[in-house]
Amino acid sequence: EYVGCGPGLSQWSEGCLTEMDEMRDTFYEEDTCQLQEMRRELERANKNCRILQYRLRKAERKKLRYAQTGEIDEELLRSLEQDLKVAKDVSVRLHHELENVEEKRTKTEDENEKLRQKLIEVEVTKQALQNELDKVKESQKRRGSKEVQKSDKKSAQTPTEDDNDDLKCQLAFIKEEAVLLRKKTAKIDKEKDRLETELQKYRSFYGDLDSPHPKGEAWGPPTTRESELKLRLRLVEEEANILGRKIVELEVENRGLRAELDDLRGEGEGEGGSGGGAVGGMGAGRGHGEAMTELRQQLQLVEDEAELLRRNLADAEDDNKRVTGELNKLRFKAGTHEGGARHGGVAAGGVCSEKAEALQEELKTARLQINDLSGKVMQLQYEKRVLLSNMQRYDLASHLALRGGISPRDSDAESDAGGIGPSGRRESDDDSSSSRLQPPHRKREGPVGGESDSDEVRNQTRCLTPTRGLYTPPPETAARFLPRNLQDRQQMIDIRVEAERLGRTIDRLIADTATIIAEARVYVSNSDLYGRGEEEEEGGRIREHELLYRINAQMKAFRKELQGFIDRLEVPKPEDREEEPLSVSVCVCACVFVCVS
C-alpha cells in the first residue's frame, strides 16, 4: 500500500515543480514586459521632447518679434502660466503613479522570493520522500529473501515495524504540507481570477493598449497596466481640454480680425464713394492696403496655429477611436467566451448573428455618409462653375466699363447701330489680326463667360489684348469712374474670399472621407479577426472602398484645381491706375484659358 502511494506523491510533487517553474517563467516574462513598457515610455518622452522643441522655437520667434516691436503679449503669458500649471499637475500625478508602481514592484519581488523559498522546500521534501521510498523497497527485498527462515523473519519484524511507523509519521507530515500547498494554490487561483476580472473591467472602461504582448504572456501585470491606462486617459483628457481652449481662443481672435477687416473694407468703400478726386482715393487705398496686408498676415498666422491644433486634436481623436476599437474587440471576445461556456454552439451562432447585424448597420451608415459626401462634391463642383462664370462676366463688364463707361448691352446696341461707318476698315483689320492671334479652337461643354454675347462685344474685348494698341482713358474719365473701380476691386476680393472658403470646405470633406476610410479599415480588420463573412458582403466592402478612394481622389484633384485658380486670381491694386487695363486684360485672358483647358 505504501509503495503504491509513493508514485502518486512523486507525480504530484513533480506537478508542483512544473507549476513553480511556470510561475517563475511568468515572472521573467513580466520583467520583459516592463522593460518594453519602459522603452515605449521613452519613445513617448522623445516625442514630447520634439513637441516641446517645436514650441520652444516658436516661442523664440515670438520673443524676437515682440523684442523688435517692444510689446508684451499678455495672452501668451496667461497661456504659458496655464500650461505650466497643467504640466506641474501632470508631473505630480506621474510622480505619485511612479511611487505606487515602485511599491507594487517591491511587493511582487517579495512574493517572488517567498515562492522561490517554497520551491526549495518542496525540492527538499521530494528528496526525503525519494530516500524513504528507496528504504521501503530495500526492506521489501530483504523480507522476500528471508521468508524461508522463520527465525530471521521474527527478528526482522521489529525494524520493519519501526520503519513503517517512521513512514506513517512522514506520510502524515507530507499530507499536512500537501493540504497547506493546496490551500495556497487555491488562494493564488482565486487572486488570479479576481485580478483577471478587475483587468477585464478596466479594459471595458478604458480600452486596451496598442502594444503587442510577448510570446507566452496573455496580458501583463494588472497593476502596471491599470496605472498606465489611468495615466494615459488623464493625459488624453488634459490634452483635449488644452486644445479645445486654444481653438476657442483662436476662433475668437479670428472673428475679431475678420470684424476689423470688414470695418476697414467699409471705410475704404465709404471714402472711395465720397472722395472728390483720384489722388485722395489712391492715398486712402494705399493706407488701407497696407493695413489689410498686415491683417492678412496675422490671419494667416492664426490659421496656421489653428491648423496645427486641429491636427493634434485629430491625432487625439484617432487614438480614442483606436482604443474604442480595441474595447469593442475585447467586448466581442468576452461575449463569445461567455456564450460558448453557457450555451455552446447555439449561443455562438447568436453572437455571430448579432455581430453580422452590427456590421450591416455600420455598413448602412457608411453608405449614407458616402452619399452625403458625393452630394457635397457635386454641390462644390456646381459652385465652382458658378464662380468661374461670374468671374468671367465680371472681367468682361470691367473691360467694357474701362472702354467706354457703358454697360455690355449698350455697347452691343451701339456696335449694332454704328458698326458700318468710316471705321469699317479698321474693324476689319482688327478682326483679321484678332483672328490670327486667337488660339486654336477646343471642343468644350457649354458657353464660357462672354461666348453668348454679340460679335461686336468680342471684337471690343480682342482690341484690349497686349498685342494691339491699349486704350488709356483721360484723367477726368478715370476720376469719374474711380468709385466703380473700387467696387470692382471689392467684388474681386469677395470672389477670392469665397474661393478660399470653398477650399477650406473641401479640406474638411477630404478629412471626413479619410476618417470614414479609416473606420472602414477597422471594421474590415475586425471581421478578418473574428470570422469571415459571406462573399457578397466582402464584394460590397471592396466596392465601397473603391468608391471612397475614388471620391477622395476626385476631391483632392478638385482642391488642387481650385488652389491653382486662386493662385492665378489677381486683385487690381488702387495704386496701379495707369497699368490697370493691361493687368485686367491679362487676368481675363488667363481665366478664359483656364476655363477652356
Automatic annotation (TrEMBL):
**What is the protein name for this chain?**
MTCL family member 3b
Pfam families xref list? SOGA (PF11365)
* InterPro entries found in the cross-reference section: MTCL1-3, SOGA_CC
Keyword match tRNA-binding? no
What residue ranges carry the coiled-coil annotation? 28-62, 233-267, 292-383
The residues covered by the SOGA coiled-coil domain are: 163-257, 292-387
| Location of this chain's protein in the cell | Membrane
Region annotation (Disordered) maps to: 133-164, 405-476
Q: Which domain of life is it from?
A: Eukaryota
Protein's GO biological process: regulation of autophagy
Composition-biased stretches, type Basic and acidic residues, lie in 133-155
Q: Tell me yes or no: is DNA damage among this UniProt entry's keywords.
A: no
What is the originating organism of this protein?
Answer: Oncorhynchus tshawytscha
UniProt keyword annotations, A-Z: Coiled coil, Membrane, Phosphoprotein
Kindly list the GO CC terms recorded for this protein: extracellular space; membrane
